[in-house]
Design goal:
Order of helices and strands: HEEEHHHH
CATH class: Alpha Beta
Number of helices: 5
CATH architecture: Alpha-Beta Complex
Strand order of the largest sheet: 1-2-3
Number of domains: 1
Strand content: 15-25%
Number of strands: 3
Helix content: 40-55%
Distance between the termini: 41 Å
CATH topology: Sufe protein. Chain: A
Structural class: alpha+beta
Largest sheet: 3 strands, antiparallel
Shape: globular
């Protein structure tokens, strides 16, 4: 049902927790399923210097949040804003169609956080 990559991101989450003195924070809830994702970011010299997540929800939502942090860490703000769901879904080895909301939740939280960043 789930790919080995997705299960690895779920069982061995990357960058869990919160960034201290974050430059941006966003918490998004998917009203349809109740999953909640909180992202905190530190921005330095126009790049995502640090990103962490806290998630409550299904296995795919937690895995997508974990993968998202790896995909954007160190990237420029423009590169981060350009991240698409296909890239995130590929990073976790694919999602069952009923779980595509997990990637969208992660991207919505990232977008909300990036709206708080100047530049």
């Amino acid at each position: 049902m789930y790919s080995a990559q997705l299960l690895d991101y779920f069982q061995n989450p990357r960058n869990p927790g919160e960034v201290l003195e974050a430059d941006a924070t966003a918490e998004i809830e998917n009203p349809a399923c109740g999953d909640v994702l909180r992202l905190t970011l530190k921005i330095r010299s126009g790049r995502v210097a640090e990103i962490r997540f806290k998630a409550k929800g299904c296995v795919p939502s937690m895995a997508c949040a974990s993968a998202l942090t790896e995909l954007v860490a160190g990237r420029t703000l423009d590169e981060t804003r350009a991240l698409k769901s296909d890239t995130l879904i590929a990073a976790v080895g694919g999602l069952p169609p009923a779980s595509n909301h997990a990637a969208q939740l992660a991207l919505d939280a990232l977008s909300a956080a990036l709206r708080q960043v100047k530049a």
